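Memo to structure team: turn this sequence into C-alpha cells by end of day. - J.P.
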Amino acid sequence: MPADLNRVTLVGRLTRDPELRHTSGGQAVCSMRLAVTSRGRDDAGNWTDKSNFFDVTVFGRQAETATNYLTKGRRVGVDGRLSWREWEAQDGGKRQTVEVIANDIFFLDSRGDGDGGGGGGGGGGQRGWSAPAAPSDLPVDTSDMRSSAPADDDDIPF
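Reply from structure team:
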C-alpha cells in the first residue's frame, strides 16, 4: 500500500508581522498569516483575483529568523505540511482549524520590496521572480563554495 502524502508549497505575502512565542520547553514558535492570490475568469469572462489566507507556524531557529527579518507585506515561500487541530473554546463550543506547519521558509524579496504593494517599485507593475535590488542582509555561509576550474573541450560530454 502506498504511503500517504501531506505536503504543501505556497507563495504569497504576509498579512501581518510574525509573532514569536516560546513553548514551556523553550522552543521558539512563530505564527504568521499568508495571503495567496490566484487569478481566474469569472462568469462574465473578466479576470478576477481571489485571495486565500493561511495560518503558518514555524518552529525552532527558523521561527527566530522569520521574526527578525520578516514583516507585513513581505513575499515569502513556505514548504511544509497541513495540520488539523480541534479544541474546546471558552464558550464550550468546539473549534477546529487547518494550519500549515512549515519545514522551510523562503524570503522572496528584499526588505525594501515588502511594502505591501503588488509588484515592487519602479517596475511598471512587473510580475514574476526577480533578484533583489539590494544585497540581502541575511548571513550567507560560503564555506562550501569553490570556484570551478575552466573546462577543456575534452571535458564536455557531447
